[in-house]
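Anyone? Bumping this.
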Amino acid sequence: MRIVEIRDVAVPMGAPMRNAVIDFSKMTVSAVAVVTDVVRGGEPVVGFGFNANGRYAQSAVIRERLAPRVLEAPEEHARADGTTLDPRAIRRLMMRNEKPGGHGERAVAVAALDIAVWDAAAKIRDMPLWALIAEDAGNPAPEQHIPVYAAGGYYDPDKGTDGLVAEMRRYLDEGYTQVKMKIGGATIDEDRDRIEAVLALLDGDGSRLAVDANGRFDEQTARRYAGALVPYGLAWYEEPGDPLDFSLNASVVATYPDPVATGENLLSLHDARNLLRFGGMRPEIDYVQFDPALAYGVGETIDIVAMMAEEGWSQRRFLPHGGNLLALSVAGGLSLGGCESYPGVFQPFGGFADETPVEDGRVRLSDAPGAGFERKAALNELLRTLL
Amino acid sequence: MRIVEIRDVAVPMGAPMRNAVIDFSKMTVSAVAVVTDVVRGGEPVVGFGFNANGRYAQSAVIRERLAPRVLEAPEEHARADGTTLDPRAIRRLMMRNEKPGGHGERAVAVAALDIAVWDAAAKIRDMPLWALIAEDAGNPAPEQHIPVYAAGGYYDPDKGTDGLVAEMRRYLDEGYTQVKMKIGGATIDEDRDRIEAVLALLDGDGSRLAVDANGRFDEQTARRYAGALVPYGLAWYEEPGDPLDFSLNASVVATYPDPVATGENLLSLHDARNLLRFGGMRPEIDYVQFDPALAYGVGETIDIVAMMAEEGWSQRRFLPHGGNLLALSVAGGLSLGGCESYPGVFQPFGGFADETPVEDGRVRLSDAPGAGFERKAALNELLRTLL
């Protein structure tokens, strides 16, 4: 049993919106297919993967470094018991001749390929990816009904506050109960107006609204915003400062009574652990948001959850960034506290399977083999172009 | 005044040796040329740059992300006073639409291009790069006579301990007084034998020998090696554990009386600051080794030295990784404590100008305009292929 071919394509996101730091109109994503020598119904089993938005496609790292190392060692692709691929062994092949530290584009490229390998491994076992993840992690009770929140509220010059409110109303109409919007791309007074407009839609219930600064603020601004946000009792205040400025983060946490959330731009277990050790984060109050589709993929995320337990954190405080079917599978298999969703944006990667409605803020896991990408028609159509 | 063209080429290193973690035979490096519209002697002024070894060439990041952003905003290339290019403004262009955190391949790609921009900026001023760096950093007394140590002692199955000693003898014959060798790629007993063989050549003076584990050890092994090294009173014990495991580093430092050195795999100012804040490093004893040709280039390194001062560190504790003319220019311009050198390896990038001998463990800065790459014939020949 082996992988016989690895294909990838760089897909433009073409998304017109921006957050406080970047404009997504030039963003790209790598979609990856892993073709195995296992045949089902006359067709080879193929696993699919992609990286999450925000870090660009990684064709060069995949083609020049990762794929050749995997393909030159086919004898290490399968589990010893022959039941399916061994994603952890394949991940070790990818990382041959890579130095420690410097977790950037490589983490993103490995993630896209690793996800495709896990998808294939689950399909070969004819089981959903969330169940394979639960098995690997030793989780006896994977979560079947995942809390999701709708992430949007990007800045768009043509949209204005009316457009923001209309966007959030659409999410509520779709069945979401909790939403997230951007802050920090306008003045603090403008952001206060935007927040209050959305809160009016949520019956003034701050616990249904999160705000995201995308790491933009310096310490003084981060604390000034914290002060302005306290009266609203928000669900969380996300990424106030640079993701690696653990002292800044600790300074915000020390003065902000409600939850702080961060971690989507920490692209490895080592970086994630440093946040828990040095970032002042409170295991009973705050959230971490590492993204499996940016940070080395599924195996690394299982290891991150084990690390969280060692550092005194419940996996329920982990709400993965990414808003896609992979993140949903991971959230289910590891019984995380929930999962981001991008219902309106980052198509066709954002969002979940077509036939799975959001009901009272939750989404049911699919019983499709693998991650279930095939059950999202627009995504499936894109992935099929790799074959 | 503007940059009119950016060219790059991926160069195989073709080096047969390995350290405790990687094999260099498949390593590549990006060489970059920045062509300006400034003409001298009938020829355009061209700046050159390259990244340091260990992180692969970065053509895709340079071509797809950095170069287009720079070339689409020529009005921001020059300083307001028109005297030369503005490398910090050009660096800001490179980083448009890049998210914070995740400092990996991007840091390496920016470094190669940033170095070429600084080289061009110094050539336009008709001054050495070290002098331009000193001016930018406000350093009134750049160091003209830089302490260097010879880094080698890689594992090579055909070399053995006799080959290791012969290699080190060659460095001493060339004028080096301090040398560095790898550890951790063999058993601790074998490494002890290798260390003692080299120490015999150094009249038993441990302060002339550093050892480098390349981040390989877990905490228990790192501390076991620390215990084994204490009797030798070595110059330093380099990168005992994963570069981001600050707790492991602090644990080693706490039990090891002699200098610990680390930092070459921390690819940004934020990561460097976290090492100083959380890594247990002692400002009076230990060394940091950030690499300007891996970590965003010259401007970031100037900012790192300013950060070190804020954290209570003298720039004399900074010995940059990289062993090339760029690192030497930075060490001089910022009056760092010295500079690595790769006299025998990583050619044609490793080592200094052809006509500058190592005298009593020091190298004189060149008065050539820019970084002086043109004064190293083999390197100059390679860089000319970009034109």
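Late reply, but here is one note on the structure posted above: Chain A has a mean pLDDT of 95.
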